[in-house]
What does this fold into?
Amino acid sequence: MNGMRVVLGVCGGIAAYKAAALTSTLVQRGVELDVILTASAERFIAPLTFASLTARPVYGSLWDAPERIPHIRLVREAQAILIAPATANVIAKLAHGIAGDLLTTAVLAARIPIVIAPAMNSAMYEHPATVANLALLRERGYDIVEPERGFLAERESGPGRLASEERLIEALERALRRRNSLAGKRIAITAGPTREAFDPIRFVSNASTGAIGIALAREAALRGAEVVLMLGPTLLEPPAQVTTVRFTTARDLFDAAMRHAVGADWTIATAAVADYRPAETAASKLKKSEGDLLVRFERNPDVLAALGERKGGSKLVGFAAETDDHEANAREKLRNKHLDAIVLNDVRDERGFGLVQSTLTLLWGAGEKREIGTGTKPHLAARLLDALEEVLGCS
Ligand code: CTP
It folds into this structure.
């Protein structure tokens, strides 16, 4: 942490006093801390406390700072943001992009890892609005340090106490490690389904939403990689920090991959590519007739196998969506497509698709294996990149 630059946001709650002790510990560990207090935080604790501890200016209003756009400079110079304590109000604003003061504006302008440590009354913490807002932030890759149960300011007991200093520092250390771990790497990611049309309005596709590829792209960009995301037809939004190239068919993806993935340091192929396409696409909408409709399918190119043949020094990671004989099938793909690792995704009963939880296992080498675990896509994306950094090497 020594020499790292961090923005500490302090919101207006009784736990604001704990931010002073945290500031002192971080300063002792060599962190250069820029503290931003919200207007309500200043009711609980004086800016002078933080100015004395950090020997640096403390920021409050957007308007009374000596410079005109402090929020942009602060987040450009920092390697991570920690908000402790974060109130329900600020969490709601961050979840909805409302940027009415210096702290929320700085977070909206930030492209660095963000750690949020909520602290509030239990009823507020458990309110469906707060639960949904925190879920949204998690989905966007924010790290939420869950509060602890215990005695609260209202003389009630329940969840809502600010996490211990130890847990806060641990989360910040994790965020700082994430920040630079993939700096200088060019990473290509394929994601989402393909669509293969057999008339102007009908197509063959699959249940992929691209969620895991989008989460990996966001996480890799946060870790400093230069990311190209090749994304199929999905309603999910690609992250702002990556270059997104859209595709519809397997052949579109093939062309995009030849341009963007050949020569990349890593390619991670999460796309659910149709192995076959209708041999003919009717020029006008097919009309029904008495008999059955026969559609003949022809083979699509295997994008990942083609990248395997043009591999050079690139590292290739495939995904294997399997319903049976999971590991044996995945290992066969690992060998046949000349991959460095493959991620096994159990998709029985459409499990593993969309925004629900999935379970991933990383396979590599002759028999090496690591469980990535079960969780939401952003959570799994972070754990998978941790594992890939080790397995593929990150020098
Ligand atoms: N893949 C690809 N191009 C294809 C088919 C698959 O790039 N035409 C990639 C996927 O993105 C994934 C990996 O290959 O990373 C394995 O995909 P999967 O559909 O599980 O396997 P297939 O090779 O298509 O084999 P099968 O459908 O027979 O299981």
User: Anything to note?
Assistant: The CA atoms of residues 275 and 302 lie 7 Å apart. The chain has two domains: 5-179, 186-392.
